[in-house]
Write a structure and sequence with these properties.
five-stranded parallel beta sheet, 239 residues, globular, 47% helix
Protein backbone atom coordinates (compact mmCIF):
# COMPACT_ATOMS: atom_id res chain seq x y z
CA UNK A 1 0.00 0.00 0.00
CA UNK A 2 1.23 3.46 -0.83
CA UNK A 3 1.52 5.99 1.94
CA UNK A 4 -1.48 8.27 2.26
CA UNK A 5 -2.53 11.29 4.26
CA UNK A 6 -4.97 9.51 6.54
CA UNK A 7 -4.15 10.67 10.05
CA UNK A 8 -5.28 9.06 13.26
CA UNK A 9 -7.62 11.03 15.47
CA UNK A 10 -7.83 8.78 18.50
CA UNK A 11 -5.43 7.01 20.80
CA UNK A 12 -4.14 3.67 19.56
CA UNK A 13 -2.65 0.54 21.03
CA UNK A 14 0.94 -0.51 20.74
CA UNK A 15 0.53 -4.21 20.21
CA UNK A 16 1.87 -5.10 23.64
CA UNK A 17 0.45 -7.86 25.82
CA UNK A 18 -0.71 -11.41 25.16
CA UNK A 19 -3.96 -10.58 23.38
CA UNK A 20 -4.27 -11.67 19.76
CA UNK A 21 -6.74 -9.70 17.62
CA UNK A 22 -8.70 -12.00 15.32
CA UNK A 23 -9.37 -10.30 11.98
CA UNK A 24 -11.46 -10.98 8.89
CA UNK A 25 -10.61 -9.27 5.60
CA UNK A 26 -13.55 -8.69 3.24
CA UNK A 27 -12.84 -7.60 -0.35
CA UNK A 28 -13.85 -8.90 -3.77
CA UNK A 29 -10.31 -8.50 -5.14
CA UNK A 30 -8.00 -11.40 -4.40
CA UNK A 31 -4.80 -9.35 -4.48
CA UNK A 32 -6.19 -6.79 -2.04
CA UNK A 33 -7.34 -9.46 0.40
CA UNK A 34 -4.07 -11.32 0.22
CA UNK A 35 -1.98 -8.17 0.52
CA UNK A 36 -3.82 -6.90 3.59
CA UNK A 37 -3.77 -10.34 5.17
CA UNK A 38 -0.03 -10.67 4.64
CA UNK A 39 0.65 -7.30 6.29
CA UNK A 40 -1.55 -8.03 9.31
CA UNK A 41 -0.47 -11.64 9.79
CA UNK A 42 3.09 -10.42 10.17
CA UNK A 43 2.18 -8.80 13.47
CA UNK A 44 2.55 -10.83 16.68
CA UNK A 45 -0.73 -9.54 18.12
CA UNK A 46 -2.90 -9.87 14.96
CA UNK A 47 -4.18 -13.03 13.28
CA UNK A 48 -6.21 -13.07 10.05
CA UNK A 49 -8.63 -15.93 10.68
CA UNK A 50 -10.87 -15.53 7.62
CA UNK A 51 -11.18 -13.88 4.22
CA UNK A 52 -14.48 -13.18 2.48
CA UNK A 53 -15.26 -12.19 -1.11
CA UNK A 54 -18.41 -10.14 -0.42
CA UNK A 55 -20.76 -9.07 2.36
CA UNK A 56 -22.87 -12.20 2.31
CA UNK A 57 -19.78 -14.38 2.52
CA UNK A 58 -18.54 -12.25 5.43
CA UNK A 59 -21.78 -12.77 7.39
CA UNK A 60 -21.58 -16.51 6.83
CA UNK A 61 -17.93 -16.82 7.84
CA UNK A 62 -18.28 -14.52 10.85
CA UNK A 63 -20.79 -16.95 12.35
CA UNK A 64 -18.13 -19.65 12.45
CA UNK A 65 -15.35 -17.60 14.08
CA UNK A 66 -15.15 -17.42 17.87
CA UNK A 67 -14.11 -14.05 19.34
CA UNK A 68 -13.75 -12.30 16.01
CA UNK A 69 -12.39 -8.86 16.91
CA UNK A 70 -12.18 -6.70 13.79
CA UNK A 71 -13.58 -6.94 10.27
CA UNK A 72 -11.88 -4.94 7.52
CA UNK A 73 -14.76 -4.29 5.13
CA UNK A 74 -14.63 -3.10 1.54
CA UNK A 75 -17.61 -1.03 0.35
CA UNK A 76 -18.26 -1.85 -3.29
CA UNK A 77 -18.74 -5.60 -3.66
CA UNK A 78 -21.13 -7.89 -5.57
CA UNK A 79 -23.94 -9.89 -3.94
CA UNK A 80 -23.96 -7.70 -0.80
CA UNK A 81 -22.04 -4.45 -0.35
CA UNK A 82 -20.04 -3.51 2.72
CA UNK A 83 -22.60 -1.06 4.08
CA UNK A 84 -25.39 -3.62 4.31
CA UNK A 85 -23.01 -6.27 5.60
CA UNK A 86 -21.82 -3.90 8.32
CA UNK A 87 -25.39 -3.09 9.34
CA UNK A 88 -26.25 -6.77 9.72
CA UNK A 89 -22.97 -7.73 11.34
CA UNK A 90 -22.97 -5.13 14.12
CA UNK A 91 -26.56 -6.03 14.98
CA UNK A 92 -25.50 -9.47 16.12
CA UNK A 93 -24.70 -10.40 19.73
CA UNK A 94 -20.98 -10.05 20.55
CA UNK A 95 -20.45 -8.43 17.17
CA UNK A 96 -16.94 -7.65 15.93
CA UNK A 97 -15.96 -4.07 15.22
CA UNK A 98 -15.91 -2.98 11.60
CA UNK A 99 -13.23 -0.90 9.90
CA UNK A 100 -14.33 0.31 6.48
CA UNK A 101 -11.39 0.07 4.07
CA UNK A 102 -12.09 1.60 0.68
CA UNK A 103 -10.68 3.47 -2.29
CA UNK A 104 -13.59 5.86 -2.36
CA UNK A 105 -13.36 8.97 -0.18
CA UNK A 106 -16.98 9.95 -0.78
CA UNK A 107 -19.48 11.51 1.60
CA UNK A 108 -22.22 8.97 0.97
CA UNK A 109 -19.97 6.05 1.87
CA UNK A 110 -18.55 7.69 4.99
CA UNK A 111 -21.95 8.70 6.31
CA UNK A 112 -23.71 5.44 5.46
CA UNK A 113 -20.91 3.28 6.85
CA UNK A 114 -20.82 5.08 10.17
CA UNK A 115 -24.59 5.11 10.47
CA UNK A 116 -24.54 1.38 9.75
CA UNK A 117 -22.30 0.90 12.78
CA UNK A 118 -18.74 0.98 11.48
CA UNK A 119 -16.13 2.09 14.02
CA UNK A 120 -13.71 3.56 11.54
CA UNK A 121 -12.97 4.52 7.99
CA UNK A 122 -9.56 4.12 6.33
CA UNK A 123 -8.55 4.67 2.72
CA UNK A 124 -6.74 1.91 0.85
CA UNK A 125 -3.96 4.32 0.01
CA UNK A 126 -3.08 4.47 3.72
CA UNK A 127 0.35 3.23 4.71
CA UNK A 128 1.20 -0.19 6.13
CA UNK A 129 1.74 1.28 9.60
CA UNK A 130 -1.55 3.18 9.46
CA UNK A 131 -3.40 -0.02 8.61
CA UNK A 132 -1.82 -1.96 11.46
CA UNK A 133 -2.45 0.85 13.92
CA UNK A 134 -6.04 1.16 12.74
CA UNK A 135 -6.76 -2.48 13.55
CA UNK A 136 -5.31 -2.05 17.04
CA UNK A 137 -7.24 1.17 17.65
CA UNK A 138 -10.53 -0.40 16.59
CA UNK A 139 -9.88 -3.55 18.62
CA UNK A 140 -9.17 -1.42 21.72
CA UNK A 141 -12.68 -0.02 21.54
CA UNK A 142 -11.88 3.38 20.08
CA UNK A 143 -13.00 4.82 16.77
CA UNK A 144 -10.80 5.97 13.93
CA UNK A 145 -11.47 8.66 11.36
CA UNK A 146 -9.33 10.81 9.13
CA UNK A 147 -9.76 14.54 9.89
CA UNK A 148 -11.51 15.31 6.55
CA UNK A 149 -13.98 12.51 7.29
CA UNK A 150 -14.67 13.93 10.76
CA UNK A 151 -15.28 17.41 9.35
CA UNK A 152 -17.77 16.14 6.75
CA UNK A 153 -19.53 14.03 9.36
CA UNK A 154 -19.88 17.09 11.58
CA UNK A 155 -21.16 19.21 8.70
CA UNK A 156 -23.76 16.57 7.88
CA UNK A 157 -25.10 16.43 11.42
CA UNK A 158 -24.92 20.20 11.90
CA UNK A 159 -27.91 20.57 9.57
CA UNK A 160 -30.04 18.05 11.46
CA UNK A 161 -32.81 18.98 13.89
CA UNK A 162 -32.29 18.12 17.54
CA UNK A 163 -33.32 14.61 18.50
CA UNK A 164 -35.25 14.70 21.84
CA UNK A 165 -34.56 11.03 22.51
CA UNK A 166 -30.83 11.62 22.18
CA UNK A 167 -30.97 14.82 24.25
CA UNK A 168 -32.39 12.75 27.13
CA UNK A 169 -29.24 10.63 27.14
CA UNK A 170 -27.22 13.63 28.29
CA UNK A 171 -29.18 13.83 31.55
CA UNK A 172 -27.31 10.83 32.97
CA UNK A 173 -23.90 12.47 32.56
CA UNK A 174 -21.99 14.41 35.18
CA UNK A 175 -20.68 17.88 34.34
CA UNK A 176 -17.19 16.45 33.86
CA UNK A 177 -18.44 13.68 31.58
CA UNK A 178 -20.19 16.31 29.45
CA UNK A 179 -16.93 18.23 29.20
CA UNK A 180 -15.19 15.08 28.04
CA UNK A 181 -17.94 14.36 25.51
CA UNK A 182 -17.58 17.85 24.04
CA UNK A 183 -13.83 17.40 23.61
CA UNK A 184 -14.26 13.91 22.14
CA UNK A 185 -16.76 15.32 19.63
CA UNK A 186 -14.23 17.95 18.59
CA UNK A 187 -11.75 15.22 17.68
CA UNK A 188 -9.40 15.47 20.65
CA UNK A 189 -7.29 12.49 21.70
CA UNK A 190 -7.20 11.32 25.31
CA UNK A 191 -3.84 13.06 25.74
CA UNK A 192 -5.26 16.34 24.43
CA UNK A 193 -8.32 16.05 26.67
CA UNK A 194 -6.08 15.37 29.66
CA UNK A 195 -4.05 18.50 28.94
CA UNK A 196 -7.15 20.66 28.45
CA UNK A 197 -8.81 19.51 31.67
CA UNK A 198 -5.61 19.11 33.72
CA UNK A 199 -6.24 15.40 34.28
CA UNK A 200 -4.21 12.25 33.79
CA UNK A 201 -4.80 10.18 30.66
CA UNK A 202 -5.95 7.30 32.85
CA UNK A 203 -8.62 9.52 34.40
CA UNK A 204 -9.73 10.68 30.96
CA UNK A 205 -10.04 7.08 29.76
CA UNK A 206 -12.19 6.34 32.80
CA UNK A 207 -14.45 9.32 32.05
CA UNK A 208 -14.75 8.31 28.39
CA UNK A 209 -15.63 4.74 29.34
CA UNK A 210 -18.27 5.87 31.82
CA UNK A 211 -19.71 8.38 29.35
CA UNK A 212 -20.09 5.70 26.69
CA UNK A 213 -21.59 3.20 29.14
CA UNK A 214 -24.10 5.63 30.61
CA UNK A 215 -25.32 6.82 27.22
CA UNK A 216 -25.38 3.34 25.70
CA UNK A 217 -22.94 4.32 22.99
CA UNK A 218 -20.59 1.89 21.31
CA UNK A 219 -17.62 4.17 20.62
CA UNK A 220 -16.38 7.68 19.82
CA UNK A 221 -18.08 7.77 16.43
CA UNK A 222 -21.45 7.48 18.14
CA UNK A 223 -20.32 10.03 20.73
CA UNK A 224 -19.68 12.55 17.93
CA UNK A 225 -23.15 11.87 16.53
CA UNK A 226 -24.74 12.29 19.97
CA UNK A 227 -22.94 15.57 20.68
CA UNK A 228 -23.97 17.17 17.40
CA UNK A 229 -27.48 15.74 17.21
CA UNK A 230 -28.23 17.09 20.71
CA UNK A 231 -26.74 20.53 20.11
CA UNK A 232 -24.13 19.99 22.84
CA UNK A 233 -21.57 20.94 20.18
CA UNK A 234 -22.24 23.03 17.08
CA UNK A 235 -20.36 23.18 13.80
CA UNK A 236 -19.39 26.82 14.33
CA UNK A 237 -18.08 26.25 17.83
CA UNK A 238 -14.29 26.66 18.18
CA UNK A 239 -12.29 23.51 18.82
Amino acid sequence: MAAGGCAMTVDGGDGEGDRVIKVMVVDDQDLVRDGISMILDGQPDIEVVAQAVDGADALHQASAVLDLGVVLMDVRMPVMDGIEATRRLVGRPNAPRVLILTTFDLDEYVYDALRAGASGFLLKRSSRDELINAVRVIADGDALLAPPVTRRLIDRFADNQLDPAMVARLDVLTAREREVLVLVAKGNSNAEIAAALHLTEHTVKTHVSRMLTKTGLRDRVQAVILAYNTGLVSAGQPS
